[in-house]
Amino acid sequence: MPQQLNLNPDLLRSFVTVVECGGFSQAAEQLMRGQSAVSLQIKRLEDQIGVKLMDRTPRNITLTPEGALFLEDARALLRHNDDIAARYLETEVSGSVRLGAPEDFATSHLPTVLSRFSSRYPKVALEVTCELTLDLVRRFKSGGLDIALIKQERGTGDMRRSSLRVWREPLVWVARSKDTVQAEQSLPLAVSPDPCVYRRRAISALKKSNRNWRIAYTCGSLAGIHAAVRAGLGVAVLPKEMVPRDLTVLYDDATGLPALEDSEIALVETPSLSPAALLLRDYIINELEHAKAA
User: Fold this and answer.
1) What would the pLDDT profile of 169-228 be if each residue is shown by its tens digit?
2) What is d(CA 119, CA 100) in angstroms, rounded to the nearest whole number?
3) Predicted TM-score (pTM) of this structure
4) Please, are residues 81 and 264 in contact by the beta-carbon 8 Å criterion?
5) Residue 20: in which H helix or E strand, if any?
6) Are 100 and 145 in contact (CB under 8 A)?
7) Which helix (H) or strand (E) holds 51?
8) How far is CA 87 from the centre of its chain?
9) Which of 31, 162, 246, 269 is the most exposed, having the fewest neighbouring CB atoms within 10 Å of its CB?
10) Pairing relation of β-strands 263-269 and 164-169?
């Protein structure tokens, strides 16, 4: 009979957390353990499987080739472990949770996450609101949402200190075709009403590059922006993964358009979340972490 190896989930979780945090001190804080304890757990895991997982220096860590392969297996095992634990320990959690999210993010990245959450916790009723970030912030501040995912400028905003960044994604210029951009003319923009992160990023980048521009179309709905771009009425700024297949990404090296800073989605929450809301918050954070790592 072949020798059996029982991997300790605590050791696996410490290893994955160190990698995702980029260091032992940050991982120790997240795991609520001492840094030496976390280091010892990694050593125990390496001894247990007989493989060196990472090279450590005072400033950073680097995964060995074996460590990079083991990381994916460790994540898969932890995910399966958490699924089983949730099925037997947390299925009795019930209640309603009010979640707000920007329309583009809610229609691209969230559906799968929320579907899996609802399957795992069938007694939790989700109330999802999709609006512009400005409206989401207003609704959140007035007590109309438990959790909100909002578009946020890096390092700015009155909610910055209480928010947690959960997603970053490159922004790109999008048009019906390259013919929409004429070097000798003002660039027509299809944008959401101010204040809007994408609108600000577009105008700021154009001003810095001394490119002439004009607001050609303003609409509060994502579908309306897409329609305007399809009709050739303007150029829009969208997250790279959310560009419809029938629209053209205008790469700056080919069109002369300035580069854009990445978009940022942050999570904000009310001070006293219900058990159901806490489950949803942690589930969203973990799922988006897995999606970024994939």
Assistant:
1) 889 999 998 877 775 678 899 998 887 888 988 999 999 989 889 999 999 888 899 999
2) 20
3) 0.64
4) no
5) helix 9-21
6) yes
7) none
8) 25
9) 246
10) antiparallel
Q: Which two tokens stand for residue 158?
A: 């009155």
Residue type at 28 in one-letter notation: A
Q: 285 and 167 in contact (C-beta within 8 Å)? A: no
CB 173 within 8 A of CB 237: yes
Burial class (CB in 10 A: 0-12, 13-18, 19+), 113: middle
Closest CA to 12 of 33, 56, 42: 42
Distance of CA 16 to the CA centre of its chain: 18
Give all domains of the chain, ordered by start, each with its CATH number.
9-89 (1.10.10.10), 95-168+264-293 (3.40.190.10), 171-261 (3.40.190.10)
The DSSP code for 235 is: B
| Residue 14 · residue 34 · CB < 8 Å | no
CA–CA dist 75, 69 (Å, integer): 11
Q: Measuring CA to CA, how many Å separate 264 from each of 15, 43, 93, 166?
A: 27, 35, 31, 8
pLDDT digits (tens, 9 = 90+) for 74-105: 888 888 877 676 666 655 788 999 999 988 88
State the DSSP H helix or E strand holding residue 203, giving kind and residue range, or none if neither. helix 197-208
